[in-house]
Amino acid sequence: MRKQDIPGLCDLFAAAFRSGSVIRRDAVALALERTYLTSPGDRLQPASLVDVGADGTIDAFMGIVTLSARLGDRPLRVGILGNFMARDSNRAKAAVRLARATTTEDFDLVFTDTANQISLGITRALKYAVLPLHSLEWVKILRPVETSTFLVGRRIPGLVRALAPIARFLDRGARRLAFASLPAPERGAVTDVAISHLEFADAALALVERFRFHPDWSERTELLWLLEQASRKTRNGPLNVRKVVDPQGKTLGLYLLYARAGAAAHALQILSIRNHELSVLGAVMKRADAIGAVAVRGSANPHVLGGLMRQRGIFYHHVAAATSFSRDPEIAAALAGNDSVIGGLLGETWTQLSTEDFR
Description:
Layout: H1 6-17, H2 25-37, E1 49-52, E2 58-71, E3 74-86, H3 91-102, E4 109-115, H4 117-125, E5 129-130, E6 136-141, H5 144-153, H6 157-174, E7 191-194, H7 197-208, E8 213-215, H8 221-230, E9 239-245, E10 251-258, E11 264-272, H9 277-291, E12 295-299, H10 302-308, E13 314-318, E14 321-325, H11 329-336
Parallel strand pairs: 3-4, 11-12
Antiparallel strand pairs: 1-2, 2-3, 2-8, 4-14, 5-14, 6-12, 6-13, 7-9, 9-10, 10-11
C-alpha cells in the first residue's frame, strides 16, 4: 500500500461496506491513512497489501497494522488483519491471493478478531488456528426494556424516541431482576477514576507482563498511538480511559470503555492484576450504567473469564471469529493455552474503519 492508493481504496470501501450510502470520502481517506500508514511499527514499510489489476486499478485490499509483542523476553512482530475489500468480480480470487500473501510476510504472528464466515473458511484452508474464547462476546444487560427499544430502533429510528419514557419507567422495576442487577458493593470500596492516555500507558505494562504472550508497550510510543486512534471512534460513544484503585491507592486494573446514553457500551480493553478481575469488571458495568448505557459488551478473553463467571446475568454469543497464524510452536501454545493478552488494542476493533459510517 502507498499513499497514492488511497483514492482507489476509498472507492473500494464505499462499494464493499457502504453500498448505496453517501460517505465523506475525505474522512474515509484520512482514516485509511491514519490506520495503515502511521503505525510506529510500520515506519520502514507499510504492511498492508493491494491487489492491482492488469489495467492498473486496485481490485482488492488487505489492511494490516504492524504491532509489537513479546513472548517472554523475546520481541515479536505481529500483523493485525483489518479491512479486506474487493471488487465483486474478483472477490474470491483476491481474498485467497491476499490471505496467502499474509502468511509469507515477515511476521511472527498474524491475528484477526473480526473474521466473518467467509474469511473463516479461507483462513482455515491456510491453516490459521481459531481461538474459541476470543471469538465469543459477553453481554451484560443493564436496562432490559431500553435494550429492546435500542435493538428495534436500529430498524425504526423514530420509535426509540417515542418509547423512551415508557422504557425508562419499566426499567426501574426491571433492575430488581437478577440478570439486570449491578454487582454488589465489595468489602473495602474501590475507586474508579478517569486518567490520561499517558497515565494509562504508565500503568498498563505491569498488568500485561504477567502473561507469557503480551503486547510490547515498554516504550509507550505504540500504546499512545493506539489510544489516540481508538479515541477517534464515535459510533459507540466517547472513549472512557479509566483506572480502578483500592482504598490504599494500589492500581487493581485499567479499562477502556466506549459508552453513551441509550446505546450498548463496548469494553475495548480490560486489564487487572491477578484475582481482581471481578473488581474491575464491576467498575466497568457501573460506569456504563452511570453513563446511561442500556447494556455493556466485550470480548470473552480468558484473562477476564474468571471475573465474568462470578457476575450475574452474563450472556455469551458469537459475533466474529478470532484466528491466528504462526509457524512458531511456542507462540501457538501460548495462545492455545490462554497464557496471552490478545485482542482489544492488539486487535482490530479500535479502528474507525471497523464501525464508523462516515456519513
